[in-house]
Inverse folding.
């Protein structure tokens, strides 16, 4: 029982990282049918922006504590959001209307570019960076398991962001306009909706979710590296396929499910199998239900 | 000054020249029909006006102002709204959300949107009954009503309809045409594209006939309805 609880909390935390990153894959796919392979690197960049923000905030003695962390997270989300918009603007928009394989290859190139840019950037570099803030150990005991407040807070923050995004996309005029563009770009334009702006909005929202996950991952694991987005990106992509790509609730469910699968899977057969679960799940879902668990109508659904 | 004036429009799809020098005029308050068989270039003409396509040559003027090359949202802002062929309603959104999208440029103006929505529901009570339903679940006739209602939410000064009668039962065609007439009587200028010329000619004041990217005939609707060529080609001859 106690071990189960501990594993569950880990699964929920890791699952929320996957879910937050998966949202961006799904949203971008929903709008422009592009699998943005550079998306995992936005998660990585979010972690690095958060890292630098925490260092800078530390100099004005704001760097530790809840306020500092929240502030750093906001800064990282803003910077990464802007970067995501820029990536679409310079790399994908000029290719709109080109055969789909072309932006896909561009996305792979963009991923390599971002990774290498971080690697050669002096303050960040190629080696592991220790996150400036570590999570407190404070918490409470439940059935003999130590439940850390920090872990709960990460999970709560992820939930808060996901629910917020969901409400925005479902209820706000901009969210509906984004879904209208996703379903029928031309018809949306005929209603006076600026499709480019909605596409930018999709990239912005996806990027800020990834950035939030990146900062929280930095706090959770304690260290970051310019390649950290690669595997997480692939797994988040798996999560979005699992839930039905293009479907936002699906991405959230897929991410959490993948977290659970991975944590409980590795605890029963050993850590060296960690990545097998995710990609095994990807293969199974692609073979048996390629539209994903929640994705009846992948086309046009967000 | 005409409300809408096209002069010498050439529009291409890649290397295919779909419009080979189209000139036409729509005066304020008119209902103008654009007729022609499948592939003549009617939709291409409307899509050129609404900014989805950019003409390679020629001019489009709206109330004297050149508009060719403006993005579609700017053109909607000027008051030109198109009901696309095949309705193209947003299936995963509810009926009411579709109407809300029609008023996208007026977003935030709650009172105006409420007022316009009430007018659309008055015009199409069926939509009101189904306003919380996903638009994708509507019947073809209801979808056409929604497509027209959605366009009205943008408060068009020039409403362009692309084959509004396509795939509808005769009584629904009648109803839609009657509604278009009422919309026109409320002061909206109308340009309607039809393959089925009979009902369009009854509605229109003037009409143009297109063939393979060119205008081949034009005149008062009543006159065209008596023209033997038109009768033979588009009104089903002696039927
Ligand atoms: N997206 C497109 N790509 C290439 N050719 C097109 C496209 N759309 C229409 N066409 C061609 O342009 C011509 C005019 O089409 P269209 O304007 O749709 O005719 P209509 O609306 O009168 O039926 C046709 O020959 C059609 O095949
Ligand atoms: Mg057509």
């Amino acid at each position: 029982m106690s071990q189960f609880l501990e594993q569950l909390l880990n699964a929920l935390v890791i699952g929320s990282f996957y879910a937050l990153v998966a949202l961006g894959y799904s949203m971008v796919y929903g709008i422009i049918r592009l699998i943005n392979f550079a998306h995992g690197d936005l998660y990585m960049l979010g972690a690095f922006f958060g890292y630098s923000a925490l260092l800078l905030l530390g100099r004005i003695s704001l760097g530790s504590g809840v306020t500092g962390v929240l502030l750093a997270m906001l800064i990282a989300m803003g910077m990464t959001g802007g970067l995501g918009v820029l990536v679409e603007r310079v790399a994908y928009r000029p290719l709109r209307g080109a055969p789909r394989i072309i932006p896909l290859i561009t996305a792979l190139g963009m991923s390599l570019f971002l990774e290498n840019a971080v690697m050669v950037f002096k303050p960040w570099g190629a080696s592991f960076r220790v996150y400036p803030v570590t999570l407190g150990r404070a918490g409470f005991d439940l059935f003999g398991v130590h439940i850390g407040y920090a872990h709960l807070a990460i999970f709560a923050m992820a939930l808060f962001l996901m629910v917020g995004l969901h409400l925005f996309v479902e209820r706000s005029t901009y969210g509906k306009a984004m879904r209208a563009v996703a379903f029928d770009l031309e018809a949306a334009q005929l209603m006076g909706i600026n499709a480019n702006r909605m596409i930018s909005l999709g990239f912005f929202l996806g990027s800020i979710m990834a950035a939030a996950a990146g900062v929280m991952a930095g706090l959770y694991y304690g260290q970051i590296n310019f390649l950290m987005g690669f595997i997480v990106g692939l797994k988040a992509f798996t999560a979005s396929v699992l839930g039905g790509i293009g479907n936002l609730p699906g991405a959230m469910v897929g991410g959490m499910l993948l977290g659970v699968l991975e944590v409980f899977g590795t605890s029963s057969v050993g850590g060296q199998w960690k990545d097998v679960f995710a990609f095994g799940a990807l293969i199974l879902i692609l073979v048996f239900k390629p539209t994903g668990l929640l994705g009846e109508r992948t086309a046009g659904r967000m | 000054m005409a409300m809408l004036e096209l002069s010498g429009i050439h529009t291409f799809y890649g290397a295919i020249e779909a419009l080979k020098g189209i000139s036409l005029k729509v005066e304020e308050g008119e209902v103008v029909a654009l007729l022609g068989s499948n592939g003549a270039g009617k939709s291409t003409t409307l899509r050129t006006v609404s900014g989805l396509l950019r003409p390679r040559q020629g001019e489009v003027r709206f109330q004297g102002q050149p508009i060719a090359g403006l993005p579609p949202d700017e053109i909607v802002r000027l008051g030109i709204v198109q009901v696309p062929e095949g309705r193209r309603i947003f299936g995963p959104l509810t009926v009411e959300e579709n109407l809300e999208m029609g008023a996208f440029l007026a977003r935030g103006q709650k009172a105006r949107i409420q007022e316009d929505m009430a007018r659309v529901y008055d015009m199409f009570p069926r939509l009101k009954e189904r306003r919380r339903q996903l638009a994708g679940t509507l019947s073809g006739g209801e979808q056409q009503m929604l497509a027209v209602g959605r366009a009205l939410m943008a408060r068009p000064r020039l409403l362009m309809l692309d084959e509004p009668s396509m795939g509808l039962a005769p009584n629904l065609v009648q109803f839609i045409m009657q509604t278009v007439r009422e919309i026109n009587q409320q002061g909206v200028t109308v340009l309607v594209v039809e393959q089925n010329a009979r009902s369009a000619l009854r509605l229109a004041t003037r009409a143009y006939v297109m063939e393979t990217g060119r205008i081949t005939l034009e005149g008062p609707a009543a006159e065209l309805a008596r023209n033997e060529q038109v009768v033979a080609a588009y009104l089903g001859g002696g039927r």
In short: Strands of chain A lie at 129-130, 139-142, 145-148, 223-224. Residues B 42-43, 85, 162 surround magnesium ion (ligand 2) (CB under 6 Å).
